[in-house]
Structures are given as C-alpha cells and as structure tokens.
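Record type: monomer structure entry
Structure origin: computed from sequence
Chain ID: A
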Amino acid sequence: MKKWLRKSFFSEDVMVVCETDKAVELPEEIVCLGIWKEKIYGISKVTVYVR
C-alpha cells in the first residue's frame, strides 16, 4: 500500500477500511493517511483511514 500511496495511485478522497482483531494496534498514520474512525464490534475492530 505504501508504494501505491507514493505513486498517487489513489484519488485525493481515498478511504481505506481495515478489519482486525480488536487487540491489534494499527498505526495512527500510514504514509499520508490518518485514522478517521475506529469502532469495536465484538471481537473485531474496524479502522477507517482517510487522506
């Protein structure tokens, strides 16, 4: 994903949704994307990154 972001593969209004186990800690920022929302659903966690 880092290569795609560096090459402007995504548009300016990109949104990336990550579903993980609720215990997984994702970084606050990935290249030029930052966490917009984070929500726990049972044993899963959904993290939404936006530019």
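Annotation 1: The longest helix spans residues 2-6.
Annotation 2: The radius of gyration is 12 Å.
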